[in-house]
Specification:
By secondary structure, the chain is an alpha+beta fold. It has 6 helices and 16 strands. The longest helix is centred in the middle third of the chain and has 26 residues, at 117-142. It is found in: Virion.
C-alpha cells in the first residue's frame, strides 16, 4: 500500500468499542478506530508531545468539561488564649474545557479497502501519531493555527513575562534563564519545568554555576533520556512544532495548564474528495476520484486551557524584535 501523509505521565485508559479484526474498510466506511490501536495511538501521541508530558491531563467523556480551580487557598491563623478562632474558606471557580477536532488525512490506494482495518491502521499508525502530536504542540505551546483561547507562549506574553537572550551585556545564558525564572517568581508562582527546541542543547550543555558545577544534567532512566536545567526537568519539542523565531525556552508551572482528551478516535474513508493541501506530480491538488485513490481521515478531539498566565515566562531568541 502506498501512502502519503499530510504533512511521565500515567497512561490514560479509555474504554473504546471493539471490532472484529476481519472487517474491511469497504464494509464500514466510518466509525471508531479499534480499541487496542486507539490506545496505542493515544499513548504514542503522549510520548511524542511536549505539552502532553508537561501539562495536567484531564480525561473527557463529552465535548465540554467543567473543572474546579483554586483562586485562594484556605489560611491558618494565630490564636491567642481565649480568642475566637477565625474561619477560613477556599475560593474556587470553575473553568470549562472545550474539545476541538484535530484531523489528519492520509491518501492510499483503493486496494486498502479490501484489507482488514486492523492491518491498515497498524501500518498508518505512525503517520497518524506524528501528525497529531506535532499539530497539538504547535497550537498549545506556540499558538500556531490554534483553535484554543489560550496557549503557553501567549500566556507569558500577556503578563509581560518575556526576556530576550543576550539583552544584558556581559550576561551569559545561565543568567538569562535565571531572569526568566525570576519573572515567574515575582508573581508568587514556582517554575517547575522548561520546554524548548533541541537546537538549544549545545548552548545549555556548557553552563556552570559559580562553583564550576554543571547547571545542565542529562541522564537515562529505563531507556528514556531525562535532562534537567537548574535541577528542573526540561522537555524538548522534537517534532518540528517549535517556532525558533519566537522563543528559545519557556519556563513554567505546566500543571497550571490543562489538556483534555476525549476518548474516541474516529475515522472516515473519503472516496471523492479533492485534497487541496496535497499536490500531485503535476502540481495540482490531489483528486482521489481522478487518481483512483481513497483517503483515511482520522479525527482526535482535544481541549486545552491555561489556568494561570503568570505561571509561564519565555526566553526570546537573541536580537528578537516583536512584530507590530
Amino acid at each position: 500500500m502506498k501512502s502519503m501523509v499530510l504533512v511521565k505521565q500515567a497512561p490514560l485508559h479509555f474504554d473504546l468499542q471493539r471490532f472484529n479484526e476481519g472487517v474491511t474498510f469497504s464494509s464500514s466506511l466510518s466509525g471508531l478506530i479499534p480499541e487496542e490501536t486507539s490506545q496505542e495511538i493515544i499513548k504514542d501521541v503522549v510520548r511524542g508531545s511536549a505539552i502532553l508530558k508537561l501539562s495536567e491531563l484531564e480525561p473527557m467523556t463529552t465535548a465540554t468539561k467543567k473543572i474546579p480551580v483554586f483562586l485562594d487557598k484556605p489560611g491558618a491563623y494565630w490564636v491567642g488564649e481565649g480568642e475566637r478562632i477565625k474561619t477560613s474558606t477556599a475560593s474556587w471557580t470553575q473553568v470549562t474545557l472545550t474539545a476541538k477536532k484535530l484531523a489528519v488525512i492520509i491518501p492510499m490506494t483503493k486496494e486498502a479497502l479490501d484489507r482488514s482495518r486492523i492491518d491498515v491502521f497498524e501500518e498508518l499508525k505512525p503517520y497518524i501519531v506524528e501528525a497529531f502530536h506535532t499539530k497539538l504542540d504547535a497550537a498549545t505551546i506556540m499558538g500556531t493555527e490554534s483553535p484554543f483561547t489560550s496557549n503557553i507562549l501567549g500566556a507569558a506574553i500577556n503578563v509581560g513575562n518575556s526576556f530576550t537572550r543576550g539583552s544584558v551585556a556581559g550576561q551569559n545564558l545561565a543568567d538569562d534563564v535565571n531572569n526568566v525564572m525570576a519573572l515567574i517568581e515575582a508573581d508568587d508562582q514556582e517554575p517547575r519545568a522548561f520546554t524548548g527546541h533541541t537546537g538549544l542543547k549545545t548552548s545549555l550543555r556548557g553552563l556552570k554555576n559559580s562553583q564550576g558545577d554543571p547547571l545542565y544534567l542529562s541522564s537515562v532512566r529505563e531507556g528514556v533520556a531525562e535532562d534537567s536545567l537548574y535541577s528542573l526537568p526540561i522537555e524538548y519539542c522534537r517534532n518540528g512544532a517549535w517556532d525558533k523565531t519566537k522563543a528559545d525556552l519557556i519556563a513554567g508551572d505546566f500543571k497550571k495548564a490543562k489538556t483534555g482528551i476525549l476518548k474516541n478516535i474516529e475515522y472516515e474513508i473519503l472516496r471523492e474528495a479533492t485534497l487541496h493541501s496535497i499536490t500531485g506530480a503535476d502540481g495540482k491538488p490531489l483528486s482521489l476520484a481522478e487518481q483512483d485513490m481513497v483517503a483515511l481521515k482520522a479525527t482526535f478531539q482535544v481541549a486545552f486551557l491555561v489556568i494561570k498566565e503568570g505561571a509561564f515566562a519565555v526566553l526570546r531568541p537573541t536580537g528578537f524584535v516583536p512584530t507590530p
